[in-house]
Amino acid sequence: MSTPKKKSTGLHNGLVYVSQHWQLYVFFLLPALALTIIFRYIPMGGILIAFERYNPIKGILGSEWVGFKHFQRFLSSPDFLSYLANTLKLSVFGLLWGFPVPILLAFLLNRIESVGVKKKIQLALYLPNFISVIVLCGLVRIFLSVTGPVNLLLGTQINFMTMPEAWRSIYIASGIWQGAGWGSIIYTAALSNASTELKEAAVIDGANIFQQIKAVEWPAIKGTVIIQFIMQAGNIMSIGFEKAYALQTDLNLASSEIISTYVYKRGLIDGDYSFSTAVGLFNTVINVILLVAVNKIVAKMNDGQGL
After folding, report:
1. Taking each helix axis from N to C terminus, what angle separates 100-110 and 164-191, rounded to the nearest 10 degrees?
2. In this structure, what are the phi and psi dihedrals at residue 258, rounded to the nearest 5 degrees?
3. Which end of the chain is more exposed for a tag (fewer CB within 10 A), N or C?
4. Residues 12-41: b if buried by 16+ CB within 10 A, e if exposed
5. What pLDDT, in 10s, does the model give residues 181-218?
6. Domains identified in the chain and CATH numbers
7. What sections of 49-132 are H helices per DSSP?
8. pTM confidence score
9. Could you tell me where the DSSP H helices lie in the chain?
10. Torsion angle, alpha carbons of 81, 84, 90, 96, to 10
């Protein structure tokens, strides 16, 4: 009965110490709070541009208010369904094909007993993550060019980058190659919590690799997998424009023109700030709705456990 008293006493003493030295905590937290407010919350005021006919000279407060005109303009655009479909296809297919790969890599790395060999393989898997997006896109263009290694290997002369039907596969495959190894880190760390005693007992009982994974290793990373899935599924609409824009050509726009690239072109290239802000806000709202919906669905399927 003494243990709860000790814990409550320690908590009370900690609260007393914080209350007596609150200036110290404020001193250390103030810079972080200031930076968060300045660079995260204050820029949110720019959302008002989506409801105005923004004029840089008049500013946000002086521009003409137009309400939901820009949203109606985007939703009634003949290209709206095309951009939305391209974004969803790229995200959903990328999630379906890319999400399991880091998990499988973590399981495979966990089977390697030699520490030296394991570190070398991990180094090779992590390296692509440190390649910049532009360099990666340059490598993809070189490898898939008419005179590139892929065509030389196949004995063909196909310009894959001009094929709309191949662009989505190229985007997803290159993303998996670049990020799967780095993404496996969190699962490898979670696997360290798996009970070695249970694993040894499973081996003694004659369990094969798949049975060991199901009975011992999977329960150790199940919670991590669920959280990662909810976060990635909730960001289905959040595809950065850099890679998509760098891999675009005039001939593959039927597949490569997504909402983020459309926002970039209309906002920064065409200077239609209000319209591009409205499209970006629409994208963000859809993301929030998806995040909440996926979290509720997964929670119902996982005994009420979600984010």
Report:
1. 40
2. -115, 180
3. N
4. eeeeeeeeeeeeeeeeeeeeeeeeeeeeee
5. 999 999 998 888 887 788 778 888 888 888 888 888 89
6. 2-65 (no CATH), 75-301 (1.10.3720.10)
7. 59-62, 69-75, 80-98, 100-110, 115-126
8. 0.80
9. 2-20, 22-36, 59-62, 69-75, 80-98, 100-110, 115-126, 133-143, 149-154, 164-191, 196-204, 209-212, 218-234, 241-246, 253-256, 259-264, 273-301
10. -100
Rg over CA atoms, the chain: 25
128 residue type, one letter:
P
Largest CA distance in the chain: 79
DSSP letter (8 states) at residue 129: G
Cβ contact 145:170 at 8 Å: no
Number of other CB atoms surrounding residue 202 within 10 Å: 19
pLDDT of residue 307: 54
Regions of the chain where pLDDT drops below 70: 1-12, 14, 302-307
Where does residue 87 rank: exposed (0-12), middle (13-18), buried (19+ CB within 10 A)?
Answer: buried
Q: Is 64 helix (H, G, I), strand (E, B) or coil?
A: strand
